[in-house]
């Protein structure tokens, strides 16, 4: 537990996976003198009260941000503008206003025009998540050893950026600062494109005629299963990601299609050397991710394998 709170009052808007995870961590670490939280959904607010996610659950965004020193909106990217419009007249001068959206350029452009010059607006993206959503999905350890990317606008207040960085580091994250546009390009290839591919493959498998759905489910361990985890991600969130990071995703998709054509050609021509060289290169990338501590080194993602069945008794 932190000895002194980092902020006298923290306000969280949106209590799904990310918002409730921040809430758990802030409470467990004692980072806020008072933690106030809210959500657009009455059901979520009721559940947040049961889960004791905050010291106080406010019934509106405007009420939640009153006198808050740090405000974090953990809402779908598509509603960030509406949230900024909602809270703008009620923000305390000097407050840090941030978000957690998976796309940064559009959030910056959507929120900045509504926010007063008296606050420090610093968009952020904790690159951490699971395929689950809602207030029950959150847990305090979500951000440990994950990256949190801050994308302050040009000329942003350095002390406020440091303060927000310190907050995320206390939650266990590693912090990096970059421009919103660069963030969107990097995440297009490391996150958005893989999700699009997973959504495609799982959809394709579901529509095959010669392979039944029950066969797809039964034999899924051959690689397909790992795509299904990604393809189970929240539809609202991912619809908004592709609508708001359109240019960067289309750029990466173009590069991907070219590489896919190269591999298709290698398979058609029986070019084993090209395939082997490509797969050797990609294997090294996996090792690099494991070496950086961003993934477990355990085979098959550490999934448990049951014990061998007993050998039949000798007659
Ligand atoms: P989530 O579990 O669906 O939670 C979002 C919550 O925000 C919902 O309870 C939603 O209520 C509420 N909300 C919607 N509009 C609102 C408004 N105008 N005012 C207040 N609350 C509102 O989503 P999440 O996974 O936490 O994602 C939240 C943000 O984090 C997204 O921008 C996403 O891009 C980003 N992010 C997600 C992940 C991930 O893996 N999930 C990782 C990193 C960043 P309703 O259900 O009633 O709409």
Draw up the topology in text.
Elements lengths: L6 E7 L3 H13 L2 E7 L3 H9 L5 E2 L3 H5 L4 E4 L6 H8 L8 E4 L5 H7 L8 E2 L2 E4 L19 E4 L7 H13 L3 E4 L2 H28 L5 H6 L5 H8 L3 H10 L1 H24 L2 H20 L24
Parallel strand pairs: 1-2, 1-4, 2-3, 4-5, 5-6, 8-9
Antiparallel strand pairs: 7-8
Helix pairs in contact: 7-9, 7-11
Explained architecture:
By secondary structure, the protein is of the alpha/beta class. The protein has two domains: 7-178, NAD(P)-binding Rossmann-like Domain (Rossmann fold, 3-Layer(aba) Sandwich); 183-295, 6-phosphogluconate dehydrogenase C-terminal fold (Orthogonal Bundle). 48% of the residues lie in helices and 12% in strands. It contains twelve helices and nine strands. The protein has helices at residues 17-29, 42-50, 61-65, 80-87, 105-111, 158-170, 180-207, 213-218, 224-231, 235-244, 246-269, 272-291, and strands spanning 7-13, 32-38, 56-57, 70-73, 96-99, 120-121, 124-127, 147-150, 174-177. The strands form two sheets. Strands 3-2-1-4-5-6 form a six-stranded parallel beta sheet. Strands 7-8-9 form a three-stranded mixed beta sheet, covered by helices on one side. Helix 6 (158-170) links the parallel strand 8 (147-150) and strand 9. The chain is globular and about 75 Å long. The relative contact order is 0.10. The mean pLDDT is 94. The structure holds NADP nicotinamide-adenine-dinucleotide phosphate. The site of NADP nicotinamide-adenine-dinucleotide phosphate has 30 residues, from helix 1, helix 4 and strand 7.
């Amino acid at each position: 537990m932190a000895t002194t709170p980092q902020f006298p009052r923290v306000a969280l808007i949106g209590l799904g996976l990310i918002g409730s995870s921040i809430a758990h961590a802030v409470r467990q670490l004692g980072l806020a003198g008072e933690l106030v939280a809210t959500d657009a959904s009455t059901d979520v607010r009721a559940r947040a009260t049961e889960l004791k996610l905050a010291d106080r659950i406010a019934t509106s965004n405007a009420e939640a941000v009153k006198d808050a020193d740090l405000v974090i909106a953990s809402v779908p990217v598509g509603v960030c503008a509406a949230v900024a419009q909602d809270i703008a007249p009620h923000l305390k001068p000097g407050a840090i206003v941030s978000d957690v959206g998976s796309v940064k350029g559009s959030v910056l452009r959507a929120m900045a025009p509504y926010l007063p010059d008296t606050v420090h607006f610093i968009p952020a993206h904790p690159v951490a998540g699971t395929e689950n959503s809602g207030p029950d999905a959150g847990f305090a350890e979500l951000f440990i050893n994950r990256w949190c990317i801050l994308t302050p606008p040009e000329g942003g207040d350095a002390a406020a950026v440091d303060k927000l960085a310190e907050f995320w580091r206390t939650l266990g994250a590693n912090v990096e600062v970059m421009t919103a546009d660069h963030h969107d390009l990097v995440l297009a290839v490391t996150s958005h494109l893989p999700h699009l591919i997973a959504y495609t493959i799982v959809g394709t498998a579901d529509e095959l005629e010669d392979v039944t759905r029950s066969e797809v489910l039964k034999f899924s361990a051959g690689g397909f299963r790992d795509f299904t985890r990604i393809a189970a991600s929240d539809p609202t969130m991912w619809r908004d990601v592709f609508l708001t990071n359109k240019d960067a995703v289309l750029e990466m998709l173009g590069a991907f299609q070219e590489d896919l054509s190269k591999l298709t050609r290698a398979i058609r021509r029986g070019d084993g050397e090209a395939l082997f060289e490509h797969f050797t290169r990609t294997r090294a990338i996996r090792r690099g991710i494991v070496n950086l501590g961003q993934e477990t080194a355990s085979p098959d993602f550490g999934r448990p394998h049951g014990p061998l069945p007993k050998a039949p008794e000798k007659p």
